[in-house]
Structures are given as C-alpha cells and as structure tokens.
Recover the amino acids of this structure.
C-alpha cells in the first residue's frame, strides 16, 4: 500500500469498532471513514486481500462482496465480448484459447455465461 496510513482517520481508535459490522457503532464508523484521506487505498487493500470481516474504506463486508461481484461480471462481460469478436474473425475456439492464454473450456464457458 503506497498511501501514508498514518493519515488514517481511524489512527489511534480501537480497531474493534471496525469489526463489529452490525452494531451501534456502524454509523460512527461510516462517518469516520467518510472523512478519511486514505479511504480509497484502504478499500482497495481490502478488496485486493479479500477481507471478509470488518469495515474497510467505509464499506462493510456485504458491500465489498457486491463490489467484487460487479467487477467479476464486468471482466466476464469484457472477455465474452472479446471472444465473440475473435470468433467473428473466423478463429476457432482453440485458436482463441491459445491467443487469450486460457483453455478451450474457459472460452466455451465465457460464451455460455457460465463462470
Ligand atoms: S477508510 Fe480505512 S483507514 Fe480510513 S478510517 Fe476507515 S478503516 Fe480507517
């Protein structure tokens, strides 16, 4: 993480406030995170390291899971679009798989919408 975490609005706070997701302190935690100068970096770190507990970057676990799901769907959609474009050039599924450095099954799944 490149951000200076000493700037974090939660510096010096009891970290337990950030791990009791659904209790009375939730609104307070969101206010603290809302004013935090390293909020983006904190959230990015949580998403990259797949944190499954607590509030990071102002987002609770279920909110981060929804963000990850949306990102996964965007990647799958982009992959499907790329594969269809390559199919349109006359490439075979095997050639496309080779070009994209994936196996043929991945190409087939992308086209059928399977994950
Ligand atoms: S965004 Fe992250 S670093 Fe900033 S206050 Fe919230 S939990 Fe702390």
């Amino acid at each position: 993480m490149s951000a200076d975490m000493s700037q974090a609005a939660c510096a010096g706070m009891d970290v337990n406030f950030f791990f009791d997701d659904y209790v009375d302190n939730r609104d307070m935690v969101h206010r603290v995170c809302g004013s935090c100068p390293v909020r983006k970096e904190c959230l990015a770190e949580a998403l990259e390291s797949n944190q499954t507990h607590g509030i990071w970057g102002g987002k609770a676990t279920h909110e981060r899971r929804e963000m990850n799901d949306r990102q996964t769907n965007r990647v799958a959609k982009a992959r499907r679009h790329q594969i269809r474009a390559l199919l349109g050039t006359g490439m075979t599924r095997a050639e496309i798989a080779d070009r994209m450095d994936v196996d043929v099954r991945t190409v087939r799944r992308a086209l059928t919408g399977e994950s």
